[in-house]
Amino acid sequence: MWPLCAAGFTTAFGAHSVAASLGGSKNVVTSLLVLGGLLALYDGAEVLLKPVFGSLADRIGARTVLLGGLAAFAAASALYAVAGSPGWLWAARLGQGAAASAFSPAASSLVVRLNPAAKHGRAFGSYGFCKSVGYTLGPLLGGVLVWAAGLRLLFTVLAVLAAAVAVWAMLAVPHVAPLPKSRQTVLDLARRLTVPAFWQPTAALAGATAALSVGVGFLPVSGAAVHLGTVATGAAVSVLAASAALVQPWAGCALDDGRITTRTGLGSGLALTAAGLACAILPGLAGLLSAAVLIGTGAGLITPLGFAALAAVTPQERLGQTMGSAELGRELGDAGGPLLVAAIATTTTLTYGYAALALLLALAPLAVLARRDASPAPTPPA
Predict the structure, then answer these.
(1) What is the pLDDT of residues 291-302, one digit of tens each?
(2) Helix 262-279 vs helix 196-225: angle between axes, to the nearest 10 degrees?
(3) I need a surface site. Which of 116, 152, 255, 340 has the fewest CB within 10 A?
(4) CA 363 to CA 375: how far, in whole Å?
(5) How far is the CA of 22 from the CAs of 25, 27, 93, 146, 244, in angstroms?
(6) How far apart are CA 323 and CA 310, in angstroms?
(7) pTM for this model (two decimals)
(8) CB 71 within 8 A of CB 123
(9) Distances (CA, A) of 88 to 28, 48, 147
(10) Angle formed by the axes of helices 151-172 and 2-22, to 10°?
Protein backbone atom coordinates (compact mmCIF):
# COMPACT_ATOMS: atom_id res chain seq x y z
CA MET A 1 0.00 0.00 0.00
CA TRP A 2 2.75 2.51 0.79
CA PRO A 3 3.97 2.93 -2.82
CA LEU A 4 0.34 3.41 -3.88
CA CYS A 5 -0.10 6.08 -1.21
CA ALA A 6 3.12 7.70 -2.44
CA ALA A 7 1.68 7.73 -5.98
CA GLY A 8 -1.44 9.47 -4.66
CA PHE A 9 0.76 12.02 -2.90
CA THR A 10 2.72 12.57 -6.13
CA THR A 11 -0.30 13.41 -8.27
CA ALA A 12 -1.73 15.76 -5.60
CA PHE A 13 1.58 17.46 -4.83
CA GLY A 14 2.41 17.81 -8.53
CA ALA A 15 -0.94 19.36 -9.38
CA HIS A 16 -1.12 21.92 -6.57
CA SER A 17 2.55 22.83 -6.21
CA VAL A 18 2.82 23.94 -9.84
CA ALA A 19 -0.65 25.50 -10.00
CA ALA A 20 0.03 27.60 -6.89
CA SER A 21 3.46 28.69 -8.16
CA LEU A 22 2.68 29.65 -11.74
CA GLY A 23 1.13 33.01 -10.86
CA GLY A 24 4.35 34.24 -9.28
CA SER A 25 6.57 33.22 -12.21
CA LYS A 26 6.32 36.47 -14.17
CA ASN A 27 9.15 35.58 -16.56
CA VAL A 28 7.20 32.49 -17.72
CA VAL A 29 3.54 33.38 -17.17
CA THR A 30 3.16 36.70 -18.94
CA SER A 31 -0.63 37.19 -18.68
CA LEU A 32 -3.75 35.90 -16.99
CA LEU A 33 -4.70 34.19 -20.27
CA VAL A 34 -1.44 32.22 -20.24
CA LEU A 35 -1.99 31.33 -16.58
CA GLY A 36 -5.52 30.13 -17.26
CA GLY A 37 -4.36 28.06 -20.22
CA LEU A 38 -1.60 26.34 -18.24
CA LEU A 39 -4.00 25.54 -15.41
CA ALA A 40 -6.67 24.22 -17.77
CA LEU A 41 -4.18 22.12 -19.73
CA TYR A 42 -3.45 19.80 -16.79
CA ASP A 43 -7.09 19.43 -15.73
CA GLY A 44 -8.29 19.05 -19.32
CA ALA A 45 -5.91 16.15 -19.89
CA GLU A 46 -7.24 14.45 -16.75
CA VAL A 47 -10.88 14.91 -17.76
CA LEU A 48 -10.30 13.39 -21.19
CA LEU A 49 -7.87 10.61 -20.36
CA LYS A 50 -8.71 9.16 -16.94
CA PRO A 51 -11.50 6.89 -18.23
CA VAL A 52 -9.26 5.81 -21.12
CA PHE A 53 -6.33 4.83 -18.91
CA GLY A 54 -8.70 3.23 -16.41
CA SER A 55 -9.98 0.90 -19.13
CA LEU A 56 -6.39 0.26 -20.25
CA ALA A 57 -5.49 -0.79 -16.69
CA ASP A 58 -8.22 -3.43 -16.85
CA ARG A 59 -6.87 -4.67 -20.17
CA ILE A 60 -3.11 -4.87 -19.58
CA GLY A 61 -2.85 -4.72 -15.79
CA ALA A 62 -3.04 -1.83 -13.31
CA ARG A 63 0.58 -2.23 -12.17
CA THR A 64 1.86 -1.72 -15.72
CA VAL A 65 -0.20 1.46 -16.17
CA LEU A 66 0.89 2.69 -12.72
CA LEU A 67 4.58 2.29 -13.52
CA GLY A 68 4.21 3.74 -17.01
CA GLY A 69 2.30 6.76 -15.71
CA LEU A 70 4.87 7.50 -13.00
CA ALA A 71 7.72 7.18 -15.50
CA ALA A 72 5.92 9.50 -17.93
CA PHE A 73 5.30 12.04 -15.13
CA ALA A 74 9.01 12.00 -14.30
CA ALA A 75 9.93 12.45 -17.97
CA ALA A 76 7.46 15.31 -18.50
CA SER A 77 8.74 17.10 -15.39
CA ALA A 78 12.36 16.60 -16.47
CA LEU A 79 11.49 18.07 -19.88
CA TYR A 80 10.95 21.56 -18.50
CA ALA A 81 13.63 21.16 -15.82
CA VAL A 82 16.20 20.67 -18.59
CA ALA A 83 14.82 22.90 -21.35
CA GLY A 84 13.50 25.77 -19.26
CA SER A 85 11.79 27.72 -22.06
CA PRO A 86 8.14 28.82 -21.82
CA GLY A 87 7.16 26.71 -24.81
CA TRP A 88 8.39 23.55 -23.13
CA LEU A 89 6.38 24.44 -20.03
CA TRP A 90 3.19 23.88 -22.01
CA ALA A 91 4.42 20.49 -23.20
CA ALA A 92 5.56 19.52 -19.69
CA ARG A 93 2.25 20.51 -18.10
CA LEU A 94 0.29 18.56 -20.71
CA GLY A 95 2.55 15.56 -20.18
CA GLN A 96 2.12 15.74 -16.41
CA GLY A 97 -1.66 15.82 -16.73
CA ALA A 98 -1.71 12.88 -19.15
CA ALA A 99 0.65 10.87 -16.93
CA ALA A 100 -1.41 11.57 -13.79
CA SER A 101 -4.46 10.41 -15.72
CA ALA A 102 -2.74 7.05 -16.07
CA PHE A 103 -1.34 6.29 -12.65
CA SER A 104 -4.14 7.82 -10.53
CA PRO A 105 -6.97 5.40 -11.52
CA ALA A 106 -4.45 2.55 -11.71
CA ALA A 107 -3.44 3.20 -8.09
CA SER A 108 -7.10 3.28 -7.00
CA SER A 109 -7.70 -0.02 -8.79
CA LEU A 110 -4.71 -1.61 -7.05
CA VAL A 111 -5.93 -0.37 -3.67
CA VAL A 112 -8.99 -2.54 -4.25
CA ARG A 113 -7.20 -5.56 -5.73
CA LEU A 114 -4.54 -5.73 -2.99
CA ASN A 115 -6.92 -5.43 -0.03
CA PRO A 116 -9.79 -7.67 1.08
CA ALA A 117 -13.28 -6.18 0.89
CA ALA A 118 -13.45 -5.91 4.69
CA LYS A 119 -10.51 -3.45 4.65
CA HIS A 120 -11.44 -1.28 1.66
CA GLY A 121 -12.53 1.59 3.92
CA ARG A 122 -9.20 1.66 5.77
CA ALA A 123 -7.27 1.31 2.51
CA PHE A 124 -9.03 4.22 0.82
CA GLY A 125 -8.80 6.24 4.03
CA SER A 126 -5.01 5.88 4.06
CA TYR A 127 -4.76 6.54 0.32
CA GLY A 128 -6.96 9.64 0.59
CA PHE A 129 -4.99 10.89 3.59
CA CYS A 130 -1.74 10.82 1.59
CA LYS A 131 -3.37 12.65 -1.32
CA SER A 132 -4.69 15.30 1.05
CA VAL A 133 -1.21 15.75 2.51
CA GLY A 134 0.02 16.32 -1.04
CA TYR A 135 -2.66 18.93 -1.65
CA THR A 136 -1.74 20.63 1.64
CA LEU A 137 2.03 20.65 1.22
CA GLY A 138 2.04 21.37 -2.53
CA PRO A 139 1.48 25.16 -2.42
CA LEU A 140 3.78 25.59 0.62
CA LEU A 141 6.77 23.53 -0.53
CA GLY A 142 6.27 24.51 -4.16
CA GLY A 143 6.41 28.18 -3.19
CA VAL A 144 9.59 27.63 -1.19
CA LEU A 145 11.29 25.83 -4.10
CA VAL A 146 10.29 28.49 -6.63
CA TRP A 147 11.42 31.25 -4.26
CA ALA A 148 14.77 29.51 -3.80
CA ALA A 149 15.68 28.79 -7.42
CA GLY A 150 12.74 29.26 -9.76
CA LEU A 151 10.19 27.02 -11.45
CA ARG A 152 12.81 24.70 -12.93
CA LEU A 153 13.86 23.53 -9.46
CA LEU A 154 10.26 22.59 -8.66
CA PHE A 155 10.02 20.52 -11.85
CA THR A 156 13.34 18.87 -11.01
CA VAL A 157 12.00 17.84 -7.59
CA LEU A 158 8.82 16.50 -9.21
CA ALA A 159 10.87 14.46 -11.69
CA VAL A 160 12.98 12.93 -8.91
CA LEU A 161 9.90 12.26 -6.77
CA ALA A 162 7.99 10.50 -9.55
CA ALA A 163 11.04 8.45 -10.57
CA ALA A 164 11.67 7.38 -6.97
CA VAL A 165 8.03 6.34 -6.46
CA ALA A 166 8.12 4.42 -9.77
CA VAL A 167 11.20 2.44 -8.64
CA TRP A 168 9.62 1.82 -5.23
CA ALA A 169 6.39 0.59 -6.82
CA MET A 170 8.30 -1.64 -9.25
CA LEU A 171 10.09 -3.31 -6.33
CA ALA A 172 7.24 -3.47 -3.81
CA VAL A 173 3.89 -3.67 -5.63
CA PRO A 174 3.14 -7.24 -6.70
CA HIS A 175 2.04 -8.13 -10.19
CA VAL A 176 -1.76 -8.34 -10.37
CA ALA A 177 -2.85 -10.10 -13.54
CA PRO A 178 -5.79 -8.61 -15.45
CA LEU A 179 -8.92 -10.69 -15.02
CA PRO A 180 -10.79 -12.22 -17.95
CA LYS A 181 -13.93 -10.33 -18.85
CA SER A 182 -16.76 -10.62 -21.28
CA ARG A 183 -17.03 -8.34 -24.27
CA GLN A 184 -18.62 -4.99 -23.43
CA THR A 185 -20.40 -2.68 -25.86
CA VAL A 186 -20.77 1.07 -25.48
CA LEU A 187 -24.41 0.46 -24.52
CA ASP A 188 -23.35 -1.97 -21.80
CA LEU A 189 -20.94 0.64 -20.40
CA ALA A 190 -23.64 3.33 -20.46
CA ARG A 191 -26.04 1.05 -18.58
CA ARG A 192 -23.43 0.25 -15.92
CA LEU A 193 -22.50 3.90 -15.38
CA THR A 194 -26.12 5.05 -15.07
CA VAL A 195 -27.20 2.65 -12.33
CA PRO A 196 -27.65 4.28 -8.89
CA ALA A 197 -24.89 2.13 -7.37
CA PHE A 198 -22.39 4.00 -9.61
CA TRP A 199 -23.70 7.51 -10.01
CA GLN A 200 -24.80 8.08 -6.41
CA PRO A 201 -21.28 7.70 -4.89
CA THR A 202 -19.77 9.48 -7.90
CA ALA A 203 -22.17 12.41 -7.47
CA ALA A 204 -21.26 12.62 -3.79
CA LEU A 205 -17.53 12.60 -4.67
CA ALA A 206 -18.10 15.34 -7.26
CA GLY A 207 -20.02 17.45 -4.71
CA ALA A 208 -17.29 17.07 -2.09
CA THR A 209 -14.60 18.03 -4.59
CA ALA A 210 -16.64 21.04 -5.74
CA ALA A 211 -16.94 22.26 -2.14
CA LEU A 212 -13.23 21.76 -1.51
CA SER A 213 -12.29 23.65 -4.65
CA VAL A 214 -14.62 26.51 -3.78
CA GLY A 215 -13.23 26.61 -0.24
CA VAL A 216 -9.63 26.77 -1.39
CA GLY A 217 -10.34 29.37 -4.05
CA PHE A 218 -12.92 31.66 -2.47
CA LEU A 219 -12.48 31.58 1.31
CA PRO A 220 -9.38 33.81 0.98
CA VAL A 221 -11.49 36.23 -1.07
CA SER A 222 -14.13 36.34 1.68
CA GLY A 223 -11.42 36.89 4.29
CA ALA A 224 -9.87 39.73 2.33
CA ALA A 225 -13.28 41.38 1.96
CA VAL A 226 -13.52 41.76 5.76
CA HIS A 227 -9.90 42.95 6.00
CA LEU A 228 -8.35 39.71 7.26
CA GLY A 229 -4.69 39.35 6.38
CA THR A 230 -3.08 36.70 4.25
CA VAL A 231 -1.90 34.83 7.34
CA ALA A 232 -5.47 34.39 8.59
CA THR A 233 -6.86 33.39 5.20
CA GLY A 234 -3.95 31.05 4.56
CA ALA A 235 -4.53 29.44 7.95
CA ALA A 236 -8.18 28.86 7.05
CA VAL A 237 -7.24 27.04 3.85
CA SER A 238 -4.70 24.97 5.78
CA VAL A 239 -7.38 24.05 8.34
CA LEU A 240 -9.66 22.95 5.50
CA ALA A 241 -7.00 20.69 3.98
CA ALA A 242 -5.93 19.31 7.36
CA SER A 243 -9.53 18.51 8.31
CA ALA A 244 -10.04 16.58 5.08
CA ALA A 245 -6.80 14.66 5.61
CA LEU A 246 -7.40 13.71 9.25
CA VAL A 247 -11.01 12.58 8.84
CA GLN A 248 -10.39 10.13 5.99
CA PRO A 249 -8.59 7.35 7.94
CA TRP A 250 -11.20 7.54 10.69
CA ALA A 251 -14.06 7.35 8.17
CA GLY A 252 -12.52 4.32 6.46
CA CYS A 253 -12.06 2.48 9.76
CA ALA A 254 -15.61 3.31 10.85
CA LEU A 255 -16.97 1.89 7.61
CA ASP A 256 -15.01 -1.35 7.93
CA ASP A 257 -16.04 -1.74 11.58
CA GLY A 258 -19.72 -1.27 10.75
CA ARG A 259 -20.09 1.93 12.77
CA ILE A 260 -21.35 3.82 9.72
CA THR A 261 -22.77 2.81 6.36
CA THR A 262 -21.96 4.31 3.00
CA ARG A 263 -25.50 5.68 2.70
CA THR A 264 -25.48 7.53 6.03
CA GLY A 265 -21.82 8.51 5.67
CA LEU A 266 -22.22 10.04 2.23
CA GLY A 267 -25.43 11.82 3.24
CA SER A 268 -23.81 13.20 6.40
CA GLY A 269 -20.74 14.31 4.46
CA LEU A 270 -22.83 16.22 1.94
CA ALA A 271 -24.79 17.86 4.76
CA LEU A 272 -21.58 18.92 6.49
CA THR A 273 -20.12 20.46 3.31
CA ALA A 274 -23.40 22.33 2.74
CA ALA A 275 -23.27 23.63 6.32
CA GLY A 276 -19.68 24.71 5.76
CA LEU A 277 -20.61 26.72 2.68
CA ALA A 278 -23.43 28.33 4.67
CA CYS A 279 -20.92 29.31 7.39
CA ALA A 280 -18.79 30.96 4.70
CA ILE A 281 -21.54 33.56 4.43
CA LEU A 282 -20.93 34.65 8.04
CA PRO A 283 -18.52 37.58 8.40
CA GLY A 284 -15.24 37.45 10.28
CA LEU A 285 -12.65 34.85 11.18
CA ALA A 286 -15.13 32.64 13.06
CA GLY A 287 -17.24 32.12 9.94
CA LEU A 288 -14.14 31.49 7.86
CA LEU A 289 -12.72 28.85 10.20
CA SER A 290 -16.11 27.19 10.73
CA ALA A 291 -16.53 26.91 6.97
CA ALA A 292 -13.05 25.43 6.59
CA VAL A 293 -13.57 22.79 9.29
CA LEU A 294 -17.02 21.72 8.09
CA ILE A 295 -16.13 21.61 4.38
CA GLY A 296 -12.94 19.67 5.09
CA THR A 297 -14.67 17.25 7.45
CA GLY A 298 -17.52 16.60 5.02
CA ALA A 299 -15.19 16.02 2.09
CA GLY A 300 -12.95 13.79 4.21
CA LEU A 301 -15.96 11.69 5.19
CA ILE A 302 -17.21 11.32 1.62
CA THR A 303 -13.97 10.44 -0.17
CA PRO A 304 -13.05 7.01 1.26
CA LEU A 305 -16.71 5.97 1.59
CA GLY A 306 -17.47 6.91 -2.01
CA PHE A 307 -14.58 4.90 -3.45
CA ALA A 308 -15.27 1.95 -1.13
CA ALA A 309 -18.90 1.97 -2.28
CA LEU A 310 -17.82 1.90 -5.92
CA ALA A 311 -15.38 -0.95 -5.24
CA ALA A 312 -18.11 -2.97 -3.54
CA VAL A 313 -20.40 -2.97 -6.58
CA THR A 314 -17.82 -3.18 -9.38
CA PRO A 315 -16.64 -6.47 -10.91
CA GLN A 316 -12.89 -6.65 -10.31
CA GLU A 317 -12.20 -7.01 -14.02
CA ARG A 318 -13.78 -3.53 -14.55
CA LEU A 319 -12.19 -1.71 -11.60
CA GLY A 320 -9.92 0.52 -13.66
CA GLN A 321 -12.77 1.65 -15.88
CA THR A 322 -14.98 2.43 -12.88
CA MET A 323 -12.27 4.29 -10.97
CA GLY A 324 -11.34 6.29 -14.06
CA SER A 325 -14.97 7.28 -14.62
CA ALA A 326 -15.39 8.20 -10.95
CA GLU A 327 -12.23 10.34 -11.11
CA LEU A 328 -13.76 12.06 -14.14
CA GLY A 329 -16.78 12.92 -11.99
CA ARG A 330 -14.48 14.42 -9.36
CA GLU A 331 -12.66 16.50 -11.98
CA LEU A 332 -15.98 17.86 -13.25
CA GLY A 333 -16.91 18.81 -9.68
CA ASP A 334 -13.49 20.40 -9.21
CA ALA A 335 -14.10 22.64 -12.21
CA GLY A 336 -17.88 23.05 -11.96
CA GLY A 337 -18.08 24.20 -8.32
CA PRO A 338 -15.87 27.28 -8.72
CA LEU A 339 -17.47 28.11 -12.08
CA LEU A 340 -20.96 28.01 -10.57
CA VAL A 341 -20.00 30.17 -7.59
CA ALA A 342 -18.06 32.62 -9.75
CA ALA A 343 -20.87 32.95 -12.31
CA ILE A 344 -23.45 33.74 -9.63
CA ALA A 345 -21.08 36.02 -7.70
CA THR A 346 -20.34 38.01 -10.86
CA THR A 347 -23.98 39.05 -11.24
CA THR A 348 -24.82 39.25 -7.50
CA THR A 349 -22.36 38.73 -4.64
CA LEU A 350 -20.19 35.89 -3.36
CA THR A 351 -22.78 35.25 -0.64
CA TYR A 352 -25.30 34.10 -3.23
CA GLY A 353 -22.67 31.92 -4.90
CA TYR A 354 -21.97 30.12 -1.62
CA ALA A 355 -25.71 29.80 -0.96
CA ALA A 356 -26.41 28.27 -4.37
CA LEU A 357 -23.78 25.53 -4.00
CA ALA A 358 -24.81 24.93 -0.38
CA LEU A 359 -28.41 24.44 -1.52
CA LEU A 360 -27.36 21.92 -4.17
CA LEU A 361 -25.33 19.93 -1.65
CA ALA A 362 -28.09 20.12 0.98
CA LEU A 363 -30.61 18.70 -1.49
CA ALA A 364 -28.21 16.01 -2.70
CA PRO A 365 -28.83 13.59 0.22
CA LEU A 366 -32.54 13.75 -0.59
CA ALA A 367 -32.23 13.51 -4.35
CA VAL A 368 -29.31 11.10 -4.53
CA LEU A 369 -29.17 9.09 -1.35
CA ALA A 370 -32.70 9.11 0.10
CA ARG A 371 -33.71 5.75 -1.38
CA ARG A 372 -32.38 2.75 0.50
CA ASP A 373 -30.47 0.21 -1.53
CA ALA A 374 -33.04 -2.20 -2.88
CA SER A 375 -32.40 -5.90 -2.45
CA PRO A 376 -34.25 -8.51 -4.46
CA ALA A 377 -36.95 -10.20 -2.47
CA PRO A 378 -36.13 -13.80 -1.56
CA THR A 379 -37.79 -16.46 -3.65
CA PRO A 380 -40.22 -18.47 -1.51
CA PRO A 381 -39.48 -22.18 -1.33
CA ALA A 382 -41.52 -24.44 -3.55
Answers:
(1) 999 999 999 999
(2) 20
(3) 116
(4) 25
(5) 5, 10, 11, 9, 25
(6) 8
(7) 0.76
(8) no
(9) 11, 21, 21
(10) 170
